[in-house]
Specification:
143 residues; alpha/beta; Oxidized Rhodanese, domain 1; 5-stranded parallel sheet
Length: 143
């Protein structure tokens, strides 16, 4: 597999490691505004409102405009599905240092029926506002 799968505590360790990892929240702008990891950047992989989402045709262009191919990116979403797709898209575009945050921001149910805690349930730092240069509007202006 061309990317790591990490639960939220391990993703937080990478972000804090000083190795330059960046958290990219691929949820919709509305989901991001309702709460996200502190320091996250928002580039939705899909638009609309769950469950009626459609792929964002600008996703890869916005990623490429803001991050070099050697960037270390952790993708996260609500439960881990959209972020896994974001990792696949980025890997196919030549990005090499990628991680999918399993469990996402809200948590996920595993195939065995157990619940995997998300970022918020793990008690990791969250915010409802983002730095001006981390919003989707700001990031897509770089395309």
């Amino acid at each position: 597999m061309p990317y790591l799968n990490l639960p939220p505590p391990q993703a937080k360790e990478l972000l804090d490691s000083g190795e330059g990892w960046i958290y990219v929240d691929v949820r919709t702008e509305a989901e991001f505004a309702a709460g996200h990891p502190v320091g996250a950047r928002n580039i939705p992989i899909a638009t609309g409102a769950p469950p009626n989402l459609v792929m964002n045709p600008e996703f890869l262009a916005v990623v490429k405009a803001n991050f070099k191919k050697d960037a270390k990116l952790i993708f996260g979403c609500a439960s881990g599905g959209r972020s896994a797709r974001a990792c696949e898209v980025a890997a196919n575009a030549g990005y090499l240092a990628l991680a999918n945050m399993t469990g996402g921001f809200h948590g996920a149910r595993t195939v065995l029926g157990t619940t995997e805690k998300g970022w918020a349930a793990c008690g990791l730092p969250t915010a409802t506002t983002a730095a001006p240069d981390c919003s989707y509007d700001a990031l897509r202006r770089n395309v």
